[in-house]
Every structure is written in structure tokens, then in C-alpha cells.
Automatic annotation (TrEMBL):
InterPro entries: WYL_dom, XPB/Ssl2_N
Residue span(s) of domain WYL: 765-827
Keywords: ATP-binding, Helicase, Hydrolase, Nucleotide-binding
The protein, known as: Helicase-associated domain-containing protein
Length: 835
């Protein structure tokens, strides 16, 4: 809440030449300073304030002040907290004394304090001259001590606040016990007690008389919390403190240490440990930059392979979408087993593919997840460009995979790919973590705790910790470190060369937020940095007699795709081991290959001969493949060998398929074709599907795609930061509106309402004044009500009046506009000096 004193628009200045209100101070600022305020607090810009009084009022609203306080670093926030417990207004010297205390001035604080005050002033949280600094009322209410909301300083209420409900007789007893002469009223008594507690010499003399136990109690309350409990019959040492006002009653059964007493015990300091400088990123651990880059590139290649493996599996059999959205716990476990990873890591890969626009729900009635058409385009890009797409999507995404598996504030489960994983601060935290690592020499790392200490100084936690015991930004930072390692942005805790390129040009300060063009340029630079570090894909494998194949490194895409169809991955690592099974060979035959094709493929890509057991396996599966054919009746089964059909009919395992003979070579089934195929395969047969024309249907794994989908849009944290063009236009509009609301007007026949408002004149007077202004070329002040009924006041220079309309240059909008005369409430000429 703000007061008229802070936001009023009346002219004049306070004694000493300073502004009387925040609006007056804003009015005296140059345009660049106003633009800086709107840049630092973009919420003030929506909608654009009509004038500087509105801007000052909006800058003092609770929501805006809370947002501004949350973006201050620790020392600037400590300065604001000190101002909240200081007298209002507060001279700069008093503020410096609260930050340094009675000890010799700390040079670090002396150097940092002007910057802190300048930041608070720039963000319109502090206004006034150096000898009359004022914290805006809302910030003071948020930061000042209270029983419900203790101050971070650990200080309690002042003597005047703590004795507000005390009887005058009790106040007189306290000052008498403290050795002060009696007064005629409680106000002067409280002032005398306050003066005693603020006098270092007299206060020290009083405390010398205190019992040792009383001194111990004061020591425990000194740094806060300042509240304690007492019984109905306090101990003698507590009674000694209560009698002299060193402890004052707060509520029945509790007492509080007055602020003035605490400050004396602290030697005048508001904070136990002021932190004028950010903690250093030390100790640092050096690594070989070449080793870090090489290992990070290997991890980047693994990241690409993992995403491809995930989407290749889901393009033929994607998991169902939960009714509430997201992936079920069971499907996440299956995905983790598929990727040979933990559930948390599997959730990250699925969220990454979703954020990059490669994965989405298909929108069908039986809704499932599947790759998008963008996945096919992504697959055809070079490896370094595919990696660039992934990491830029990760860096900008507000979705936080680390939340998957937890619960929200209402104890509802949070599922991977679900609707409730967006956290607006995530992109900024990721970007800042990488930017801090970029300040270290190449190949150098620090511990996560060191990095978190720096982040906590730059943005002190002010919100309650989420489930897990840490505040949201801390958890986001920990997840960012883990995810950066998985992607190859970092390795061994150090930023890789592609990771540095991802933040911007070398030597430039990393910018946040980035525009789409800047993000695209950074992705290109990162891809260029990664390209020479990636291992060269191989075009060969090593076949072994135990029905396995070894890929001694990453394979070229056609070879890898075909091998993934023909064999199952048995183990991963520096080398990948594939195993050939009847099911995997049948899968290749289902994809349209023949036995001869498979043998030719293996012969052409193996550095070792095709083992005889593998050749026999391919021939045996191919001999039986397609012997049985499934079609749709509900479905049917046909075979040239009626003995095989007879064998199937008498097999008890075929009972769920409800088969019956239609002809010697044809059986009808009540089951759907895909169920019939699976049932026969479970019985040990190798059927093939056929089309309505009787041709074998080739089942390709890449046949299933979602309709075109766009990547999920990040959920911004508050209004976006305005660009320079918008800032310039907004400042001009605010200046023009302020001129319209504060310019002196000549008296009119029907004066404006008392207290300010729209001018009121008759239609004839309005028309005559407008015509006179056109002839003289002067500007006038008008009141205008638009079609929606919104009233505003404007300064215009009329150039034409005809047909019931006036056309003129609108100083408020900085453009030529036309207004209907019937919507103008009144008009007044500007005073000569403002005309």
C-alpha cells in the first residue's frame, strides 16, 4: 500500500530541495533512468501508465514490490532491510551505521553501499535525497519486523511500538526503575526511554548493573528471534529486565527485546553478517580442457543416441496418455528399462524430446505418444546440428523433468509429460548456472555447494521450500547441473567448449533472455564447436559365432537403423553388443527384407565372415515366414497347407482366438488381425499380414507419426523484458500523459471538479476554443471519453475542426489523431509558459 505522500502529483519540494513524493522524484529523472526502471521492473509497463503519478502508484503496489524484492542480491536486500528498521526518513550516515555498526568502517561495505542504494533508487524502492532516504511504504511493511512476519535482521519492534498498549502508570514505573525522572505524559516517557537505550554510554552503565543471568538472556535474544516466554511469576533476573523495559510484554506469557536494546547489544549493526561481496567460486578444480571437451562430446553423442532409441521405440508402440495427461508410472518404468537408465533420467529424456518438438500425443481417441513429423527432419540433420536443437530447447524450456515422480502442493502426483511441470524460473536458473561456470578458466570446475552459495547470494531464497527441503531455485540449479552433464554441455563439472559457445560469442557477457535470433546463432556456434569433437561414425561391425555382433563405436545411420531392426541391443558402452534372435530376424522380414537381403547386408558390413549359426537362423525363420497369412473378416487365416490349419485348430492355445474353418485352406477368427498375429506368434508360428489384394503387408517401424505439432511454449516468469523500441515509446507516452495531467491551465467558465479531473465546458465553448486554437496554432487541454467509456485527459494542438470532428497533433500519443467533438467533455487553454 502506498500513501498520497509517496505517489501524489502535487508540485513543490520538501525542505532542503528534495522531492516530496516518489512521483516528483520520477518526474525529475531523465528519460534514460525511467527506461531503466521499466527495464528492471517490466510489470510496471503493462498497461503503459497514463502519467508518472500512475507509474509511482503502480511501483508501490504489493505484488510489484514483492517481485522487485525477489530479484535483489543479498547485500542490496540487506540494505533495504536495514532501511526498514531505520527511522523514516533515514540519512545516509545512519544507514551506513546500521550496516557497519560502531566498529571501524568496513571498506568493503563502504564501497558496496552506494551501489546498493543506487539499485534501490533505480528500481523505485527508495526515493529522496541522501539525507532523507525513504523506503516505499509497501517495502517497509514487507521487511519491517512484526510478530507474524519476523524480520531477516532478527530485530523486534521499537520501544514506542512495544509500549503502544501499555498503561501510562506502567510506563512511568519502567522509566523510574531505569533511573529516569518522571514525565507528565506517556509520549515523553517513551521518548526518554528510547533516548536512554540509544545512548551508548548510559546504556552501558545500566547494563553493568544487570545480574549475570539477565545478561545471558539478552545475549540469547540479541540476534533474534527477539521473542521469549515468561511465567506469571518471572525469575528475579527476568523481573529485573522487565522492570527496566529491557524486555517488554508482547502477548500474555511472552516478551520481546526492543529494537533499540538489540542494536546496542549488536554494537549498532542491523545484520550479524553483512555480505557486501558475492562469494568467490572457490576452491576450483582444474582439469585438462581437451579431456573435458572430448568426454563432453562423447556424452553429447550418447544423448543423441538415447533420444533416437526412445523415439524409435515409441514410433511403433508409444505409451498411452493418461486421462489427466502425462506418462503413467508403469510406462516410465518401462522406458527406464528400455534406456537402461533411472526413472529420473528417463523422465528427462522424454521431457527433452517433448520440449524439442520431436514427441507429442497423436490426438486419437485412444491417445498415445508418438514422434512428430519434425522428428524425421531432425534425423536428417548432421549430428552436431541435432545436438544444437536439443540443447537450445533444453536451455529455454520451463518444463522441469526433476519434478516428475513428486507431488504438488495438493499431494497430487506429478507425471512425466504431465501438464503441471512448468516452472517459470527454470530457464533463468539454467542460464545463470552455465554463465557462472563460463567465468572459470576452461576445464575448471567447482563443487555444486560452491555454485549454490553464489546463486543464493545473487538471489536469496525468499519463498518457502517445496517438498524435498529446498527452495525451488536451489532444486532447479541442482537439476541443471545433472542435465548439463547428460547433454555434454558440461563434463566433470566444467563447461565444455560447445557449452561456452551456447551462451554467446566468446568474450561477450551472456545475455538473458535471448531472442529467437540470438538463440539460433548460439546453437550454430555450439554446433560448429562440437563438430570436430564428435567421433567419426563407423560403417562396419564384427559378427561373432554366438549370434552376436559388436559395434566398436558409433555406427553410421543406415547401418545403425538396419541393425536395430535385425538384432536386439544386449549391452551398451564404448562398444555396443547386438544379439540376433528368431524374433529379431522375423522383425526384419516383416519390414520387407528377404533372407538373401539380410545375408548380403551382413556380409557387406561385417569385418568377419557371417557365422554358420547366424546363416542357419536366418534361413530357418525365412522358411517359415509368411507361410501363414492373416487378413480381416473380423480376421481370417489362410494357408496352402491344410494340415497346418488343422494343427492350429486342435491346439488349446488357439481357443481365445475363436477360430473356425471356412475352407480347407481358410480359417475365420473373431479376434482382430493384430491380435491374431500376436496370438499365432505366441504359439510359435511366423505369420505375415496381408492386404485386401492378398499381398504381404510390410510393417515399417517409422509408419506412425502424430499430426504436425509445435513444441510446447515456455511459460514466462512475469512480463517479458521490453525492447528498446518499446521502452522509448512508453517513456514518451508517460511523459506526454504527465504533461497533460500537470500542465497549468487558464481558468475556464466552468472549472474542473475540485481535486482534479476532466475539464467541463459546453459544446459551444468547446467548439469556439478549438477554432481559436486552430487559428493561433496553440495547444489545449481536453477531457475525452472513448467508445468504451474510459476517460482520459490529453494535450492536443488542433489543426482542423469540421464535420463534428477535431483533428490535431496529440502530444500524449505523439501522433496526429481525430476526435469526435461530442466525446470531448471540455477544453481549456494551457497557461502561456506551457502552451
Amino acid at each position: 500500500m502506498t500513501t498520497p505522500r509517496e505517489t501524489g502529483s502535487s508540485g513543490g519540494t520538501a525542505r532542503g530541495g528534495g522531492p516530496r513524493t516518489l512521483a516528483e522524484e520520477l518526474r525529475a529523472r531523465p528519460d534514460g533512468a525511467l527506461a531503466g526502471l521499466l527495464r528492471a521492473r517490466p510489470d510496471l509497463l503493462t498497461p503503459v501508465p497514463g502519467d508518472l503519478t500512475q507509474l509511482a502508484t503502480r511501483a508501490g503496489t504489493r505484488a510489484s514490490v514483492v517481485r522487485a524484492l525477489e530479484r535483489l542480491d543479498r547485500f542490496v536486500l540487506q540494505t533495504a532491510e536495514a532501511l526498514a528498521v531505520a527511522p523514516d526518513p533515514c540519512p545516509y550516515g545512519t544507514l551506513a551505521g546500521l550496516m557497519t555498526g560502531d566498529a571501524p568502517e568496513d571498506p568493503r561495505i563502504a564501497e558496496a553501499l552506494p551501489r546498493a542504494v543506487a539499485v534501490l533508487r533505480e528500481q523505485a524502492l527508495v526515493w529522496g535525497t541522501e539525507d532523507r532516504l525513504r523506503l516505499v511504504r509497501t517495502a517497509r511493511e514487507l521487511l519491517a519486523p512484526s510478530a507474524a512476519h519476523p524480520s531477516p535482521t532478527g530485530l523486534g519492534p521499537t520501544v514506542a511500538e512495544a509500549t503502544a498498549g501499555m498503561s501510562p502508570g506502567r510506563v512511568q514505573q519502567i522509566i523510574a526503575a531505569a533511573g529516569l525522572p518522571g514525565t507528565h505524559d506517556p509520549v515523553s516517557a517513551v521518548a526518554a526511554l528510547t533516548a536512554l537505550f540509544e545512548d551508548r554510554v548510559r546504556m552501558a552503565r545500566l547494563l553493568e548493573q544487570a545480574p549475570a543471568e539477565a545478561t545471558s538472556v539478552l545475549g540469547r535474544l540479541r540476534w533474534g528471534p527477539p521473542y521469549g516466554t515468561v511465567t506469571a511469576d518471572p525469575a528475579p533476573h527476568l523481573r529485573w529486565l522487565l522492570d527496566r523495559g529491557l524486555l517488554l510484554p508482547a502477548t500474555p506469557g511472552s516478551v520481546v527485546l526492543p529494537r533499540e536494546v538489540a542494536l546496542h547489544l549488536r554494537a549498532g549493526r542491523a545484520h550479524r553478517a553483512p555480505e557486501p561481496a558475492a562469494p568467490e567460486l572457490a576452491p576450483a578444480t582444474p582439469h585438462s580442457a581437451r579431456t573435458v571437451d572430448a568426454a563432453a562430446a562423447g556424452q553429447a553423442f550418447t544423448a543423441l543416441s538415447t533420444v533416437e532409441e526412445l523415439l524409435a521405440a515409441w514410433e511403433s508402440d508409444g505409451p498411452l496418455v493418461l486421462r489427466a495427461g502425462g506418462l503413467s508410472v508403469r510406462d516410465l518404468k518401462r522406458t527406464a528399462a528400455l534406456l537402461d537408465a533411472t526413472e529420473a533420467t528417463a523422465a528427462f529424456w522424454t521431457e527433452l524430446a517433448y520440449a524439442a518438438g520431436l514427441l507429442a500425443s497423436d490426438g486419437e481417441v485412444d491417445e498415445r505418444y508418438a514422434p512428430t513429423p519434425a522428428y524425421d527432419d531432425w534425423l536428417h540433420l548432421p549430428a552436431e546440428q541435432r545436438w544444437g536443437r536439443l540443447v537450445t530447447a533444453w536451455l529455454a524450456a520451463t518444463r522441469s523433468a526433476g519434478l516428475a515422480g513428486g507431488r504438488d502442493a495438493k499431494s497430487r502426483p506429478l507425471n512425466a509429460l504431465g501438464p503441471d511441470l512448468d516452472r517459470s524460473p527454470a530457464p533463468e536458473v539454467r542460464h545463470r548456472v552455465l554463465a557462472l561456470l563460463a567465468t572459470l578458466p576452461p576445464g575448471t570446475s567447482v563443487t555444486p555447494e560452491t555454485l549454490l552459495a553464489r546463486l543464493h547470494w545473487e538471489r536469496p531464497p525468499r519463498t518457502a521450500a517445496e517438498p524435498g527441503g529446498e527452495d525451488l531455485r536451489t532444486r532447479l540449479a541442482r537439476w541443471a547441473l545433472v542435465e548439463a552433464e547428460l547433454l555434454g554441455v558440461t563434463n566433470r563439472g566444467a563447461l565444455s567448449a560447445p557449452g561456452r559457445a551456447l551462451l554467446g560469442p566468446e568474450g561477450a557477457e551472456p545475455a538473458f533472455p535471448m531472442s529467437d535470433a540470438e538463440a539460433g546463432a548460439c546453437a550454430v556456434r555450439a554446433a560448429v564447436a562440437l563438430a570436430p569433437l564428435l567421433p567419426e561414425p563407423l560403417d562396419h561391425i564384427l559378427l561373432q559365432a554366438d549370434l552376436t555382433a559388436v559395434a566398436p563405436g558409433p555406427l553410421k545411420r543406415p547401418l545403425a537403423q538396419m541393425l536395430s531392426v535385425l538384432a536386439d541391443v544386449e549391452s551398451k558402452g564404448g562398444a555396443t553388443v547386438y544379439r540376433f534372435t528368431p524374433g529379431s530376424v522375423r522383425r526384419a522380414l516383416d519390414a520387407g527384407q528377404t533372407a538373401a537381403d539380410l545375408k548380403a547386408f551382413l556380409t557387406g558390413h561385417s569385418r568377419t565372415p557371417v557365422p554358420q549359426p547366424l546363416a542357419y537362423l536366418i534361413d530357418d525363420v525365412a522358411r517359415r515366414h509368411g507361410h501363414l497369412r492373416v487378413g480381416a473378416a473380423s480376421s481370417y487365416l489362410r494357408c496352402d497347407d491344410d494340415a497346418v490349419l488343422a494343427e492350429i485348430l486342435v491346439d488349446r492355445r488357439s481357443a481365445p482366438l475363436r477360430l473356425r474353418r471356412l475352407a480347407p485352406t481358410v480359417l475365420a477368427a473373431q479376434a482382430a488381425p493384430d491380435e491374431l498375429l500376436e496370438g499365432l506368434r505366441a504359439m510359435g508360428y511366423a505369420p505375415a499380414a496381408e492386404s485386401a489384394e492378398g499381398d504381404v503387408v510390410v510393417m515399417r517401424a517409422d509408419a506412425r507419426r502424430t499430426p504436425p505439432r509445435t513444441a510446447p511454449a515456455p511459460v514466462p516468469e512475469g512480463p517479458p523484458v521490453p525492447d528498446e523500441t518499446l521502452l522509448g515509446a512508453a517513456v514518451r507516452a508517460i511523459r506526454a500523459g504527465d504533461m497533460a495531467s500537470t500542465a497549468e491551465r487558464k481558468p475556464v467558465a466552468a472549472p474542473a471538479p475540485a481535486g482534479g479531473g476532466l475539464p467541463r465546458t459546453t459544446s459551444a465553448e468547446t467548439l469556439a476554443t478549438m477554432q481559436a486554437a486552430v487559428m493561433t496554432g496553440s495547444a489545449v487541454w481536453i477531457g475525452y471519453v472513448n467508445a468504451e467509456g474510459a476517460a482520459s485527459q490529453r494535450v492536443i494542438a488542433p489543426v482542423r475542426v469540421e464535420g463534428g470532428f477535431v483533428t490535431g497533433y496529440d502530444h500524449t500519443a505523439d501522433e496526429v489523431r481525430t476526435y469526435p467533438l461530442h466525446r470531448i467533455t471540455g477544453v481549456a487553454e494551457l497557461a502561456d509558459e506551457h502552451a
